[in-house]
Amino acid sequence: MKGRIVKHFKKLGFFIILLILFPKLNYVHSQPGWLKEGDYAVYKFKHAYASNGPLVWGDFGWKLYDLGEGYYRWEVLSIEGNLATLEVTLSTGNNTKTVEVVINTETMDLVENGEVWGKAWFWIDLTRLPAASDVYTVERDITLVSSWLNETVKNPRVSRVFSMSKETGSPLIKTGMGLVDLVVAVSVNTNATNLELGKIVYGPVTGGIHLSWVYESQCGLLVAGLYVDDILTQKFGVHFFEEMEEVGEAVYWIYLEDTNIDIGISAGGTDITVLLKTYFPYILLGVLVVLFTITLVRSWRRTLV
Amino acid sequence: MFFTSQLGAGIGGGTSVSNDKELLSIILARFLGWMGSDSVSGLYLALSFFSAILVSTSFASEFESGILKFYVSLPTSRLKIFAIKFLAEFIIVFSIGLGAIYYLMFMKAPGDFLGLLAASPFYVLQPCISLVLATLFTFAVSMYFSVNSRRAWHASLYSLITLYSFYSVRQVAPGAQWFLPPYAFAWGLSEMTSAIYTTFFSVLLICLSCYIFIRKLEVS
């Protein structure tokens, strides 16, 4: 009898271990190990606003000037241990500037001569995310940007992986390669409330300008959002972008235009499930119109016998 | 719309009560909160089921059995027959729904409920508006299929599928649920414009059903 029970539990044990591990397995497929030499990502933006020299607090807040439309690109040149050398390019109009930076692939620290000078969150380690639960987000004790308008932006709220279409009902995230549904969101409130962009005054924003951006769920690659990092602020002097979105879309400063990394593109006309979910109300109304019409036409003239 | 609008930030702040009217409003808001999304959708499902069964039994089933032929042969206008059938069933379903709402309110907080009733029946009657509109919608859909279907079970099936498909929106496209039944009727949870155009659709369907019943139904 005892032997049979033990044997039974041995069988069950396998499934119990699977059940325990299953929530974690959902995230293990996105180890930072995917990063290799030659990987790149290009982000598009509409208008970049930069500081001309030292930042000055003006009558209406920080004074910035317009660099115009362009792209922000990074490419991995080499990897040694946890340190990767990236070639980062900012192109605006006719002006293109490229710098080489060394980044710690785990902590995302930007390192120069052995000293950390900032942060750049081009990707996140999905294995360190909170497990899926009713608690949607947790506050992470990490620094996002060391120097943004003379402010250190830190302690963001980080969500678990969630579906834009299923869990929020929001439109999918647009990229140059298709739509992204499963994402991780990062958000933080800053102390900056006013910006003066040439003749445009931005703000005042109650509670500070809210930075937020999202990563896709397969690799944890930055996809889109109100994103800024220390390479932008300290190497290129860029602190702000013009918001760009179409009606019904999320607000973007930048969005992923191109990459050679295999990210979690879930729609773009190929994923029928996501398409069905996205356009479900319209499909439903269409089907109902057809049903109502057929019913009406079939019995337009009935006879009581 | 920010990406992180769904991050679930907590709602802070307190409420200070300055007068009785404000207190009554708060109690009413609490009641409406209890009758929140789950209650609204649950009630809608029940209304859908009863409407589909009752209306198809009343119209389509009587088409099949021939009783309707007897009714229309009486010296009574078809409009009256339609109106009487509609009102009789509407009142039954509406009364059951209202009973369910008041039962929920009373069981949750008997003291508050009686206090509201004593202060002003107007407060207690507010959920009636949502219920009237929801019942009207489920009745309109059921009525349309009942008048147009040759079999009673066809009418019930089409009605249930149609009404349930609106209910299923919340699972597939949560963002759109506030613009469609059942949440379109839950004022405070959704925009009032949703209730207006859904009610307009309900009235249109009932008018169409009435027109078909009066003008297009031939007796041989």
Order of helices and strands of chain B: HHHHHHHHHHE
Number of strands of chain A: 22
Main structural class of chain B: mainly alpha
pLDDT below 50 for ≥5 consecutive residues: which ranges of chain B?
Answer: 1-18
Shape of chain B: globular
The total of beta strands of chain B comes to 1
Task: Report the C-alpha radius of gyration of chain B, rounded.
Answer: 20 Å
Helix content of chain B: over 70%
Number of helical elements of chain A = 5
**N-C termini distance of chain B:** 61 Å
Beta strand % of chain A: 35-45%
Biggest chain pair contact, residues each?
Answer: A-B, 47 and 40 residues
Count of discrete domains of chain B: 1
Multimeric state: heterodimer
> Roughly what fraction of the amino acids of chain B lie in strands?
under 5%
Give the SSE order of chain A as H and E letters. Answer: HEEEEEEEEEEEEHEEEEEEEHEEHHE
Provide an overview of this structure.
The complex is a heterodimer of chains A (305) and B (220). Chain A has 305 residues and is of the alpha+beta class. Chain A contains five helices and 22 strands. Chain A has helices at 2-28, 164-168, 230-235, 272-278, 280-298; strands at 40-50, 57-58, 61-80, 83-92, 95-104, 109-112, 115-119, 137-139, 143-148, 151-154, 157-159, 162-163, 173-175, 178-180, 182-189, 195-197, 200-202, 210-216, 222-225, 238-241, 254-259, 302-304. Chain B is mostly helical. Chain B is 75% helix and 1% strand. Chain B has helices spanning 20-34, 37-58, 60-65, 67-73, 78-108, 110-119, 121-148, 152-167, 169-172, 192-216; one strand at residues 217-219. In chain B, helix 2 (37-58) runs antiparallel to helix 5 (78-108), helix 2 (37-58) runs antiparallel to helix 8 (152-167) and helix 6 (110-119) crosses helix 7. The longest helix of chain B is centred in the middle third of the chain and has 31 residues, at 78-108. Chain B is globular and about 60 Å long. Chain A binds chain B through residues 136-137, 157, 159, 162, 165-170, 173, 183, 185-187, 210, 212-214, 224-226, 248-251, 276-278, 280-281, 284, 287-288, 291-292, 295-296, 298-305, and chain B through 1-9, 63, 66, 68-69, 72, 144-145, 148-150, 158, 161-162, 165-166, 169, 172-177, 179-180, 208, 212, 216-220.
